[in-house]
Amino acid sequence: MPEPRLDDAGIDHYWKHGYTVVRRLVESNDIATWLQRLEDIVEERVPASEGMLVMKDIMIAKGAHRTEQPAEAIAKVQDFENDPVLASYCTNERILDCIERVVGHELFAHHTMLINKPPNVDGRHPLHQDLLYFPFRPPEKIVAAWTALEPCTRENGCLVVVPGSHEGELVEHQNVDWEWVNAGYFGAKGITAETPRIHLEMEPGDTVFFHPVLLHGSGRNRTQGFRRAISAHFASLDCTWDWTETRMDIRPYRIVRGRDAGGRWSGRRGEGEKIDPLDYIRVGPARARKQTENEK
Question: Which site from 90, 183, 202, 231 is most exposed, i.e. has the minimal number of CB atoms within 10 Å?
Fold first, then answer.
């Protein structure tokens, strides 16, 4: 049986619709290893690695729901690049072979997450664009890999995408009018119930690759099980740092393929007009400070 890969038809689908799915790309032994590591971190059998955020769901943090099982309290494990086990997702050869077909051979990894989505909490993520969080450009040289670790269905809150939305621009984001929304889960402005979307139901090992301007999100987990997935973004070493923020050590930005593999991407600054991410976020005191500064 041929090894799963991103073929020409998949590449065409990616550029036309903003995403593409490769079925059974990741092997079961890797999935088992990452799930075990998640359990070890959540149960505090191993410490969180440097820079890692083990994020509680807001309903747990605010006391709206109580659970005696540690795993049911956690929404996600973010920034796992320094974890010796989870970081292997970023260097998985099958993943990187697919990424290379989209953005080229010289690659660095960033913005890593293991998403837990437990039962009995809201857990939804509004439709948004990942480029909001990224300081480098161009978007065509950035791509996400998102792998199901367990069955992802409409019932347990699978990934949802808006096909073709990657051809638009980065839009303004804001807090959505929901009772419970996890910190940093901003929603793209202008989304309505009529916005067309596709639910990506996936089996363990299935991997979706998507563009950073693609509108995507996920629904509530309505089952008594978990909906777990592991994700990372990758970018070409040719990208430039285009934010007004000058610090380039926000995340590890580790090079995972190419001549400097194992090193850290430091990049170069773009020559065009710099981007202030607060121009795209209509929420909170940071936005208020930005408006005050503009009025001076």
Answer: 183
